[in-house]
Each structure stands twice: as structure tokens, then as C-alpha cells.
Amino acid sequence: MAYTLKKDGNYSYIEVGEGTPIIILHGLMGGLSNFDVVTDFFSNNGYKVVIPELPLYTLPLLKTNVKNFAKYLYDFINYKNYDNVIILGNSLGGHIGLYHNKLYPEKVKALVITGSSGLYESAMGSGYTKRSDYEVIKKKAQEVFYDPKIATKDIVDDVYATVNDRNKLIKTLAIAKSAIRHNMSKDLPNMQTPTCIIWGKNDIVTPPEVAEVFHELLPDSDLFWIDKCGHAAMMEHPKEFNQILFKWLSKRKF
Hints:
By secondary structure, the chain is an alpha/beta fold. The protein is about 40% helix and about 20% strand. Helix 1 links the parallel strand 3 (about 20-25) and strand 4.
């Protein structure tokens, strides 16, 4: 189902359902529609699903970094007057969620990360020397998934347009450098928020050992694997992703 983007103050976001807010954070090359199946399921099972459009390409270059995205999320949560939120992030979105939790843990009752950066990633932040070659970008987009067919023409077209927009490319590279600079390894042991880690066994962007380190360093975490799955589990195996998360939330009484 296609959802309408709401405009409210300085924010654009999807908001659907009633109940505990699940705030979903998209990745560097990820669209809000990547979470359609997740949104459908949880908005019909007792949760309010909220997907803010992150200001990846609209902040000044010097403010285009993980820390400022985390502050943006904090301001958004306060603007909407949400309390006791669950933050779910994929890739860069997971990193932003983790960094937000480092700075502002008060209103976060649970974290969910999938294919998250923050420790190590081999992603879209490099390899742009042939960005004008559509087939090269197509192959790079396909590598994100275990099944290359998930990288539809629309997805490839969006990535191609992004990396060939000079302003967006400069900010994409700035974000990639920021993700490396804001490494979370020293912060994770101090984060007590219950965390659900859902990971693709075949992720080559943030390989399985990254999930294992997240699980080892986060004091209150549970790790779940999805087989034949790459970097975006919620797109590649959405039903299994939803089942794992719903069961975890129910067990934890969130």
C-alpha cells in the first residue's frame, strides 16, 4: 500500500495506526517505501508506525553527519510529543537510532537494528569513479540483496539519479565518512536499552560478524538471523522480519 507523506512544520513523515510509536529510520539509499510491508503489518497490530524523511541532503554540508541526524530525530520526537518509542533502523538508519540512544535515551524503550552501520560497513560511500555507468550502479545496487531481482529498475534508477546529482553525491560521501568517524564500539557497552538485532546471513555490506559484535557489545540484546538474505531484511523477507519482530516485542511486552 502507498502511504501519504504528511507535512508538519519542518517535518515530512508517514504516520499510520494507533498505539506505541515505532519510528522507522531509512538508510542512505533507502526510500520510505522500503518499509511498506512492515508498516502494513504493525499499523494493523496495535502500533503507530512513523517514518520521518531524514534530512540527508537538505542540511548544510558541515552538519551532514550522524550526530546531527540523531539530533533531528530527537527534535522530531519532541515536536510530535511521542513518549516511550521503539526505534527501528536499517543501515544508516540503525546507526542514527543507536547514536540517538547514546545521546537521548530517555524516551526510547526499545531499539531494532537491521544491517546497521556503526561498527563496520562496506557500502555506497565508495566506488563512484564510474557513477555515470548505469550498469555499474545497477550491479552495486543488486549486491545489497541476496536476490538481485529485489533491486528493481525503480530502485536502480533512484540510486543512479542520487549518485549523479553532484550535491547529493558530495553529501553521500560526507555521510559515509561520518559513519566511520562515529564508530559506536566504545558506546555500546553503556547502552542498556533492549535491542532486537535482525540480520541477513548473506549481508555483504555489514557482514554477519558485525551483527555478532553488536550482540556481544550491547548488554541487553537478542540476535536473529534470516537465511538467504542480504542487507535489507525488511524488503527481502518482510513476513519473516515481521514475525521475528512481533514475537520479540510481545515477549518483551512492548
